[in-house]
Specification:
9 helices, four-stranded antiparallel β-sheet, globular
């Protein structure tokens, strides 16, 4: 059983650095008992068509930092130096290390997520051939689908380059860790628009191993327990996408989020409001998101920021 690392300052209520990537000097004062999990990163690239506060299509995911994630198998390192393609590297097999990929989880469509329903009414089909256009597709953890993998095969891809497909299982053909394709964003300055570390509330005595186990179990059960599809309906109650996945994961595992505590996530605000209006249709979603909001508000009540820019 491992400890929580160097969390003494957070637990005892001393000043600890908040956001080392922020050009401002920022500190937080945390009351005793609240534990910041600085080995977990909640990453957000909000949906935005224009401007620098997001990107299209954007993405939300969660990362687990491991001490061994930078270890690269010797034969993989040689193949990368020779600019081998993804297919060629996979053919080598014998994956024993993380190979630079950080364990991470997010929800994706298996392919381009546009579903077109034709108009079958013979009276109007000549003038209106399309009945409905929806942004939905079958969903998959970490974008790990046959279609996405195929797009990557002929490319030179490593842990720092953008890719179509991540891997949804541990000990896969690229890494010992499951990983979201966006885990590479940490190597590209300014790509991640919002990043926070979650908190555990007082009297929550779960270990690091407990938390990691619960995150993995939630991610691997999402397809069967919550949804088999990916969809976007402008933060509507009936959508299931990377936002939904992250919010439900945080609530289910019981991880308080400073971004939600500060009401700085517009997607969460709009989505939760729509869930509240249809809570009889989405009772589990309502319960889990209510829990997330409640525990996040508690950390806001127990710390304050001092920012100097």
């Amino acid at each position: 059983m491992s400890d929580w690392g160097d969390l003494g300052t957070a637990i005892m209520g001393n000043t600890v650095p908040y956001d080392p990537n922020n050009p401002c000097t920022s500190y937080k004062y945390v009351k005793a008992g609240y534990r910041e999990l600085d080995w977990i990163r909640i990453c957000r690239i909000p949906l935005a068509f224009f401007g620098k506060n997001g990107a299209f299509p954007g993405h939300y995911w969660i990362e687990i930092i491991h001490d061994n994630e930078d270890i690269i198998d010797k034969h993989i390192k040689v193949a990368r130096e020779e600019y081998k393609t993804e297919a060629e590297i996979i053919s080598l097999g014998n994956v024993k290390s993380a190979n630079g990929f950080r364990e991470s989880y997010g929800w994706y469509p298996v392919d381009f997520p546009v579903t077109i329903t034709p108009n079958e009414d013979p009276k109007t089909t000549a003038n209106v051939p399309i009945k409905l256009i929806e942004f939905k597709e079958a969903g998959t953890l970490n974008g790990d689908s046959t279609v996405r993998r195929k797009k990557d095969e002929s490319e030179f891809l490593i842990h720092i380059t953008p890719r179509e497909a991540g891997r949804k299982t541990m000990n896969n053909n690229l890494s010992i860790y499951a990983f979201d394709p966006h885990q590479c964003s940490r190597f590209h300055k300014g790509e991640i628009k919002m990043m926070s570390h979650p908190y555990l509330l007082p009297n929550d005595n779960r270990t690091k191993e407990d938390i990691i186990k619960e995150i993995r179990e939630f991610a691997n059960s999402f397809y069967d327990e919550y949804s088999k599809e990916w969809s976007w309906y402008n933060d509507g109650y009936n959508e299931v996408n990377c936002h939904t996945f992250l919010f439900l994961l945080l609530g289910h595992v019981g991880l308080a989020d400073p971004i939600i505590a500060e009401d700085k996530d517009e997607h969460f605000r709009k989505y939760f409001e729509n869930i509240k209006k249809r809570k009889k249709e989405k009772p589990i979603y309502f319960q889990v998101l209510t829990k997330l909001e409640d525990i996040s508000k508690k950390i806001k009540e127990n710390y304050e920021y001092k920012v100097t820019c």
